[in-house]
Design brief:
heterodimer, A: 11 helices, B: 378 residues, alpha/beta, Rossmann fold, 2 domains, 4-stranded parallel sheet, elongated
Chain lengths: 263, 378
């Protein structure tokens, strides 16, 4: 099968890392070779796949001017998921965007195993505030983008902006994922939004305490609570992503229409 | 281990500029700097003297904030109309690279028939040879050079970096610039030695176009020796192989060789191509050991610090450099006299013949004076 290289976008705090790591775990359960690349300076994308442990980031090593080798930056997590964290400078110092560019270049250079993967998930920061934050896409590393949102106005507003950005950088959208915040008519709203921008709703992840509980312990739902109902939602989403073949260049909505949708 | 063991605090050659010069050697007609208007100004102007057009997207504060994709693609279209180029280069700068500008996209937007070499480079590399390397790799991707030439250049670049680290501008944390020894005195010394019948070796080990001026020193020594009737005592070595290097560099070798011939200066040993200055050292050393170990005087020009001292210890060493920061490292190596040709490089751009050097001119004048004096005495 062709390698899938996906990025999950969405408003900060909406649950991108949780979704990414649970999807990664679900795909690993299915026997796929999976890599997750955390592109956020917070470096928390892979933490629930590593039993709560933090790994050395690419930029940690580059800062020490160490000659970076593959084994230094690629760490094996749950069921063989390959975990990489880009890392970044301290908040408020230097340039995180440039950091992503440099780290991604280094990763491409030293990481040979990346070619063997069935699925690579780039967990990107919520706000694409500068050129560096789209480096994985611009460098041709990502071939599918997903947007995560809830049915609330602000996350949808962010999702709508991301659609504008994606068409600007010529990247097709493969689907919308709803991470529920339990607001009224949520599934309807997000479904409608997805259709109006020309895409589709891929999954509705209900808001469940168990996701948070597992995260607090440093695990994915798939590892810690495999029999929970939300685990099967992730499993289904993983299946949908792996078999998804369609993507579109999204359009975007006028702000007025967006407000109407959520009213 | 860190790439650089020492942290160098004197200003160094820029990788952006190195990329520009490499594009010139690849015979691009236009190079576009994607960045602020003042970036690499001085060298951009010099390169225009050398026959290529260097223009800039002139990113301003707005450009830094909003990016310059449109500016670059429209400039590509503009230069295509203005200059009708056969080959274009686009070069990154610190500002555009930090904000994550892509060069590929605007090149695609412009959609020109002309091939474009995209060089994503900034000046933040400790060795400026990195700029050359990135430019060459992009040229290879664009099909402008073949794999063999790329491989050859990579070896040269690694060695060039090593040469600078050993005895060059990257050998110390801080190097004080110096004007070197007085040309008048060193020229006098050199003439005295020739008069005394000492055997003299000239080694021109020049970097590309700088050879147009360093060659003049070889010529001057031969002229003076002839006047003194001791031209038999001179052996000339030069890195002027006409069959090695990028097209423009080969052309320099041909031009200089033609001038040598015309001026009746025999080159007894061709020690490599004009881009091979970092790897000629071993060859020169061996030649000296095999054939010229009885020579008493050696004049090394161009990149003198690339020639090992092993077989020069018994000789009086005069070296001529164009780097004011090279004076002290050369003295440390054991060179007896170090002469600096200030501002050599600008004078060797846009020329196709040997140009007069200050040291060569000093030597000629001094020899003339002394010859006149001795004639008056007799």
């Amino acid at each position: 099968m062709a390698q899938k290289r996906i990025a999950i976008y969405g408003k900060g705090g909406i649950g991108k890392s949780s979704t990414a790591s649970n999807v990664a775990a679900a795909c690993a359960d299915e026997g796929y070779k999976v890599m997750i690349i955390g592109c956020d300076p917070k470096s928390d994308s892979s933490i629930t796949l590593l039993g709560g442990k933090r790994i050395q980031t690419i930029l940690d090593l580059l800062r020490q001017k160490i000659d970076v080798k593959e084994e230094d930056i690629v760490h094996e997590g749950y069921k063989g998921v390959q975990c990489v964290e880009v890392g970044g400078p301290e908040p408020g110092i230097g340039c995180a965007g440039r950091g992503i560019i440099v780290a991604i270049q280094k990763l491409r250079k030293v990481c040979k195993s990346i070619d063997d993967m069935d699925l690579i998930i780039y967990d990107v920061p919520g706000d694409i505030v500068c050129g560096g934050f789209v480096a994985p896409i611009r460098k041709g590393l990502v071939n599918e983008a997903y947007i995560l949102t809830s049915g609330e106005y602000m996350p949808l507003y962010a999702a709508n902006n991301i659609c504008k950005g994606l068409s600007k950088i010529n990247t097709p959208l493969s689907g919308i994922i709803c991470n529920s915040r339990s607001v009224t008519r949520e599934e309807d709203i997000v479904k409608k939004f997805s259709e109006e921008i020309g895409s589709k709703l891929m999954a509705f992840i209900p808001k469940e305490q168990i996701v948070q509980d597992c995260e607090r312990d440093g695990f994915s739902v798939l590892e810690k609570a495999p029999d929970s109902s939300v685990a099967s939602v992730y499993r289904e989403l993983a299946h949908t992503i792996m078999s998804n073949g369609s993507s579109v260049m999204p359009s975007s909505l006028e702000d007025e229409r967006l407000r109407e949708l959520t009213r | 281990m860190a790439e650089n063991d020492i942290s160098i605090i004197h200003p160094r050659p820029s990788s952006i500029v190195a990329a520009l010069y490499t594009l010139r050697d690849l015979n691009v007609d236009v190079a576009i700097l994607h960045g602020p208007p003042g970036c690499s100004f001085k060298h951009a102007r010099l390169l225009e003297e050398d026959g290529i057009h260097v223009v800039t997207t002139a990113l301003d504060e707005n450009g830094f904030v909003f990016g310059g994709r449109d500016e670059l693609s429209s400039l590509l279209c503009k230069v295509n109309e203005m200059f009708d180029p056969k080959l274009i280069g686009v070069v990154g700068t610190c500002a555009s690279m930090i904000i994550g500008e892509e060069l590929r996209e605007p090149v695609q937007d412009a959609n020109l028939e002309v091939p474009v070499i995209e060089v994503e480079v900034h000046a933040g590399y400790p060795n400026n040879t990195k700029g050359v390397l990135i430019a060459l790799e992009s040229a290879f991707e664009a099909g402008v050079i073949d794999e063999e030439e790329l491989g050859r250049q990579k070896v040269l670049l690694t060695e060039a970096t090593n040469v600078e680290k050993r005895h060059g501008a990257a050998s110390k944390e801080y190097l004080v610039p110096s004007r070197g020894d007085l040309k008048y005195k060193v020229a006098g010394k050199l003439i005295d030695c020739l008069k005394e019948g000492k055997k003299c070796l000239t080694i021109m080990n020049a970097k590309k176009e700088t050879g147009y001026m360093f060659a003049d020193i070889t010529v001057a020594i031969n002229e003076v020796a002839k006047e003194l009737g001791v031209d038999e005592n001179i052996i000339n070595m030069a890195n002027v192989d006409e069959n090695l290097g990028l097209p423009r560099v080969r052309n320099h070798a041909t031009n200089i060789m033609n001038d040598f011939k015309e001026k009746g200066v025999p080159i007894h040993e061709i020690i490599g191509g004009m881009d091979e200055y970092p790897i000629t050292g071993e060859k020169v050393s061996k030649l000296i050991a095999d054939k010229y170990s009885d020579f008493e005087l050696v004049v090394i020009t161009g990149v003198p610090h690339a020639i090992p001292m092993d077989n020069l210890k018994e000789m009086e060493v005069i070296s001529v450099t164009n780097g004011p920061r090279q004076v002290f490292p050369l003295k440390d190596m054991g060179h007896d006299h170090v002469v600096v040709e200030i501002d050599l490089h600008p004078k060797t751009l846009g020329v196709s013949h040997i140009v007069e050097s200050e040291f060569g001119a000093t030597m000629r004048e001094l020899a003339k004076d002394r010859l006149n004096d001795s004639q008056e005495e007799s």
